[in-house]
Design brief:
Elements (H helix, E strand, L loop, with lengths): L1 H16 L9 E5 L3 H7 L4 H22 L3 E8 L7 H21 L3 E5 L7 H13 L7 E8 L1 H18 L4 H7 L2 H5 L12 E4 L18 E4 L9 H13 L7
Parallel strand pairs: 1-2, 1-5, 2-4, 3-4, 5-6
Helix pairs in contact: 1-9, 2-3, 3-4, 4-5
Length: 253
């Protein structure tokens, strides 16, 4: 067993060395998918699968810190997930709450929650706010935790903010609609002020975005990985980055 591990470590190190700093994406988004399927294959509970997925998030952010990825967005809980059975949802929300505490104590990255946060339980809202405040000066990537998140809802919320601000300035709805621009929407998204994602990764073999960063991903590169999220390895991440580095980005061309 020692020889394969040594060869694996050598391959991983060699792969990392092929990636120049100017070839890496500034912003990586990840749909952390496959926790429940991972649990089923081991005869474990869904809750144990989500816990394994939370542990992988901590590990993944260490990799991003080592590679100097500037922004990471993790799709952890969608608005649809809030309709899961009460027992499963309660356990999942507690795991997310615990994860926020662990990331806060880990000291890697600056945490920002993105989503319809008012729909979340008060305890989780408070933990997210506390984590954001206490990690604001941390080194490492800016970490968006997409929780209670839906891409369509984000766009709706952005448009609402644009019109609400225009109304507060005394502008008419007709004038606001006539002058509405792409930049108006972009500047009111949950991720406002951040670069759009260069690379979106989805684990578990599914090849769809499920509403993740719908507006921001217009020119993103996509990478779909067969590994279930708890099984996602550093070498899988490096392969995704290598694939990204080899592509010629066209930005709509």
């Amino acid at each position: 067993m020692k020889l394969p591990r040594l060869l694996y470590s050598f391959y991983e190190h060699r792969l990392a060395r092929t990636l120049g700093p100017d070839e890496l994406p500034r912003h990586v988004g990840v749909l952390v998918d496959g926790n429940r399927r991972w649990a089923r294959q081991f005869g474990a509970t869904t809750v144990e699968g989500h816990r394994a997925g939370a542990r992988k998030i901590v590990e993944f952010l260490r990799w991003c810190h080592e590679l100097d990825i500037r922004v990471v967005t993790l799709y952890i809980l969608s608005t649809e997930n809030l309709n899961r059975p009460p027992e499963e949802l309660a356990a999942l929300l507690q795991i997310i709450t615990d994860l926020m505490g662990e990331l806060r104590d880990e000291g890697i990255g600056r945490i920002q929650a993105v989503g319809a946060l008012a729909t979340l339980p008060r305890a989780l809202q408070e933990q997210l706010a506390c984590s954001a405040e206490r990690t604001a000066a941390n080194p490492g990537p800016h970490v968006n935790i997409a929780v209670g998140y839906g891409g369509r809802q984000e766009i709706v919320d952005a448009v609402r903010e644009v019109f609400a601000e225009a109304g507060a300035r005394g502008e008419s709805l007709a004038d606001t609609a006539a002058s509405l621009s792409v930049q108006d929407i972009s500047s009111h998204l949950y991720t406002r002020g951040q670069p759009d994602p260069d690379l979106l990764i989805r684990t578990s073999g599914e090849q769809r975005l499920s509403g993740f960063l719908m507006w921001q991903s217009a020119y993103s590169e996509f990478y779909f990985c067969e590994a279930l999220w708890p099984d996602f390895r550093r070498v899988d991440f490096l392969r995704a980055l290598r694939d990204y580095a080899r592509r010629q980005r066209r930005f709509g061309g």
